[in-house]
């Protein structure tokens, strides 16, 4: 009688034998510096690619930031031969006790809120309405909308100054009014906001259009078949999917409105009349380069930096959460 | 529960994009409760056709009828059709429950009614556990079921499905195929299903409509289109490996009519005479038999490669200028370089016109007795 037993068939890798895996003897005894050099050469390229950007960031952003922080604890009038006098936190105390700061922060808040129609509402409406424009017409149309962005702010300001002229300006002629737009406390800020809005709205339309193009058309098609009306599709599908783009624009508006308005304020109103257009950046500029109080300006800069940082991180977190919608 | 009539009729439906005709005068009658598969290679116009039925694309010419109503100019949301997209198109910002409930929300149902109906559909599709998740947190198969759920939730007149299985892996696809078939049987609903996958078409369809370059090539049951392909295109498209197609000539021989080419002589089983004519001879790989060396006629071929499919083997051979493949149970007993003689039964031979590619059928002429 023949006897036997079932034996497990070994997997292929084991069957091939393990001798080949052992490193050849003597491979490690090579000169260690050569191995190190080789490692360095192998690891260097990514850092070399990063270097130009890092150098520029350090030289133009981080170093001045650190210097500003340092400067905020000194009294100095920007004259090179005059020594910097350490004053501790006196600059901050002075800054927080003047009404200027609160006023300018309030004005900046008004600017930001008033910019939102130009950077969010109007662009969404225009982008949604012009979605159906195709081909060459679309390109021409976009160029038209984007054109104001290409006009240098100072050049635009010169033309607007002429348009808003109280006696001969076309705005007053058309409205039949005699308002001194740029030189009265009631209207100066609104004039600045409207001009800035004209300037950046095209850019925002472009951003929203790009956001809309990025939405898979299948969603709208599915919603149509599912029985949604055009308004429902916009409210329930398109706008929620556009929210990362809108969050980005909101962030831009909050962080950059004060910067966008700066060249116009500087050329048209110089912060006036009676401080009615002195936003945070203009205040900072006035401290530094009008009053030559470098320490106070630096302290204001540090405070604004910290404030915007806080707002930015908050908004970034919100937009992060929205962005996760995208699949 | 279901509406009575959901027959879909297409009348000379045409869609042109510039100078390109994507769908060319397609007329089709989809009966109530039918599972019609639109089958064809990519770019054949099948998805365009489905989008025109859904109303997402306006036809250039022709009409779409649902039941007795002409819906050609009715917007998609008033068409009472549900569609499953290839990408599933699940709204990424909404939970599974809100995705499934979306069609009801658009129809203004109350929250409570929507919740109840969604729960019912979710239970049927085994989605109850997933109702609070977002689409991105689901696997491919789960997303597919949610898309199906969104279509099912409102008891539509008919279902349109655009390659719903193409994003699933092979194992899941086979399972989901069976699920959709079972669903169709249970609901008795009309389904128009687009695919380029012949296995899906053969296994699920009650009828298959084959499209090529925007034109309808053949409509028939899976057996009909497989056993009697109406054209060379259909013959080549269905079957794996594809039907062997050989340029040949039909000629009369002592044993009746036969198809002849270099190294090929296959009797057609018709005892008659006819003038010689060029044809395309078709025979499926599984219908070729390996004959003994002594046999007369058949295809004299040389084996070039043998493929192992597990249960079967396919031998790729050369006969004259033609390539011929043979499929049979493993082992076939063939090796590279072997000379073989292949035969086929006359009823398994297909003839197509050499120019038009259309199927040829034998019509005996009335017998004329000499006076």
UniProtKB/TrEMBL annotation, chain A:
How does the record classify its membrane topology?
Multi-pass membrane protein
Q: Name one GO cellular component term.
A: plasma membrane
Every copy of the ABC transmembrane type-1 domain together lies at 105-315
| InterPro entries named among the record's database cross-references | ABC_transporter_permease, MetI-like, MetI-like_sf
Could you tell me the superkingdom of the organism this chain comes from? Answer: Bacteria
Where is the protein found, in the record's own terms? Answer: Cell membrane
Residue stretches spanning the membrane:
43-62, 105-129, 141-163, 189-215, 236-258, 294-316
Q: Which UniProt keywords apply?
A: Cell membrane, Membrane, Sugar transport, Transmembrane, Transmembrane helix, Transport
Q: Which GO terms describe its biological process?
A: transmembrane transport
CDD domains the UniProt entry points to: TM_PBP2
Q: Which family does it belong to?
A: Belongs to the binding-protein-dependent transport system permease family.
By its UniProt entry, which PANTHER family does this protein fall under? ABC TRANSPORTER PERMEASE PROTEIN, INNER MEMBRANE ABC TRANSPORTER PERMEASE PROTEIN YCJO
Protein known as: Multiple sugar transport system permease protein
